[in-house]
Write a structure and sequence with these properties.
mainly alpha; 3-stranded antiparallel β-sheet; 5 helices
Length: 159
């Protein structure tokens, strides 16, 4: 296991914010930061993603706008009986390995109108419940995953 000075500095900075900067507390703060760093490296090992800040900001704005549009779409479908619902499951073969990046993708995919990730199947594909199951959903999922990969600055091999 490697040591991460960036994580350690972050945890120590958090300690200082919480307790203030007192010389008597520094030893305890250093120990707490070291233990927190060790635990974080066990629970969330380092990876080789190289996030692109501007693309992440763009993705965040897309996330917010899609959340509003998805809410309107679902409400419209619920209140308008003429819009036919065709609930079903769509399988999505994710290019992301299991872990934080795939969890982030699942969160983003909830914002496509009428979609909700339900877990994975035996092959490792994501199972997505849809109000209107169609190929458009599969294409939208692939688009969102590609945008996330670009924003993370990596390829699926980088986990």
């Amino acid at each position: 296991m490697t040591f991460s000075p960036v994580r350690a500095a972050g945890f120590f900075g958090f300690w200082v914010i919480l307790t203030g900067f007192g010389l008597a507390d520094l030893a305890v703060g250093i120990l707490a930061a070291a233990l927190a760093t060790r635990a974080s490296l066990i629970l969330l090992p380092p990876h080789s993603w190289r996030p692109r800040p501007l693309l992440l900001v763009d993705l965040a704005f897309r996330f917010l706008s899609q959340s509003v549009l998805a809410g309107i779409d679902v409400a419209w479908r619920a209140l308008n009986p003429r819009l036919a619902l065709q609930p079903g499951l769509v399988l999505h073969r994710s290019r992301l390995p299991p872990g934080p990046a795939r969890s982030t993708f699942c969160t983003i995919s909830t914002l496509l109108p009428g979609t909700l990730p339900c877990g994975g199947d035996a092959n490792g594909d994501l199972v997505i419940h849809c109000l209107v199951a169609s190929q458009d959903v599969a294409r939208q999922l692939a688009t969102e995953e590609a945008l996330l990969l670009r924003a993370l600055g990596g390829t699926p091999d980088h986990e």
